[in-house]
Amino acid sequence: MTGSIKGIERFESPGKGRGLRVTKAFKVGELLFSCPAFSHVLSVKERGYYCEFCFTRKEGLAKCGKCKKAFYCNVKCQKADWAMHKLECSAITAFGEKWCPSEMTRLVARILAKTKSQKERCVSEKILLIGEMQSHVEDVDNENREMNEGNIAELHQFYSKHLDFPDHKDLLTLFSQVACNGFTIEDDELSHLGTAVYPDVALINHSCLPSVIVTYKGTSAEIRAVQNMKPGDEVLISYIDLLYPTDDRNNRLRESYYFSCDCQECKTKSKDKKKLKLRKRSDPIEPEVVNNMVRYARKSIREFRACKNIKTPGELLEMCEHSMEEMGSVFDDSNVYMLHMVYQAMGVCLYMEDVEGAIRYGEKILKPYFQLYPPFSLNVSSIYLKMGRLYMVMDRNSVGVGLLKKALAIMEVTHGKDHLYLAELRKEIAQK
């Protein structure tokens, strides 16, 4: 597929394996290429709000007459999606509330269905041919191996009527490939909409100093430059959240993608001091105290993540406040670990519809996010959108419009000036 994309070619990237590079110049905001998903699946939580086939959000979607769970723009979208939806339609009806495959299982089922007709090759070979997606099945830790085994059990339980499965080893490889190469489709505020596989995009290597960014138009992925690029430059995206310091980023890369980054930022760690800023005190803070607090912060983040679906919103907010109080004795308010907990507290307030609380926490994030994230960051535009809309709710329109305009300026680069999100945002601003 990449051979047909003008201005892009595949090559062997030193130390990284396969990759993409540009053969002509691209300016900031320019579209390198767009590609449809090989396979995609809408999150169960978004059913009824988005079309199952094209991911269009609209009022009055038509529901599937049989299962009553899938929704579509019109008959055209419903017919186009039937080859995939039939994998689930009868099972949803038969299992009722017990129908609960993971999103990963649902996506893999669709990939198997798409490759079903090519019986001359095993599934893993076919998937490898589709973009040469990497697999690290031998590197998977016990927790992820158990998750893959659970997903395979779900596949047999919920999809055996419509699918013939390859052997167990091939299925383990396929789940590992999709875990490493799948993409989360998100909306303008970075809310999760679904998951997809884009073989061409999966060829792009990681850097903590990315040259491009991936955004979504419906179920298609669009890759735009966030740096000016000259012929021969490698196309690089970030696989992870870039807010965190070098050690945290590389821990995440090793855990999820089985490699460490050696980009210039990871070599120099030039932004780490700013990201780990300490509170100003009359007496200097001992390095051991700082290291202990970093360990505490990482532990608090893991514990909060583990408790998200167990504790009540009030308990979660209390966890955030307690962590911030502990960390605040050592860390500055702009320290990334403090920001992490502030962001989580804001999210809890949004869930509880506590607008004033969400604004109170959000105000602590705005300036540090702008300073710590790279230019044209979706994390920055999304916080501008969230806060701008919250201010509107509180009738603080001038402040809200100012933040929405800041989001618009970033999104004109990341999404392109003709994206539906921007048309809706311009309308939102004009109405206020």
TrEMBL record:
GO terms for biological process: heart contraction; heart development; methylation. PROSITE patterns: SET, ZF_MYND_1, ZF_MYND_2. GO terms for cellular component: nucleus. Its EC number is 2.1.1.354. Keywords: Metal-binding, Methyltransferase, S-adenosyl-L-methionine, Transferase, Zinc, Zinc-finger. It is an enzyme of class 2 (transferase). One of its GO terms (molecular function) is zinc ion binding. It catalyses: L-lysyl(4)-[histone H3] + 3 S-adenosyl-L-methionine = N(6),N(6),N(6)-trimethyl-L-lysyl(4)-[histone H3] + 3 S-adenosyl-L-homocysteine + 3 H(+). SUPFAM superfamilies: SET domain. This is [histone H3]-lysine(4) N-trimethyltransferase. It comes from Cynoglossus semilaevis (Tongue sole). The lineage of its organism: Eukaryota, Metazoa, Chordata, Craniata, Vertebrata.
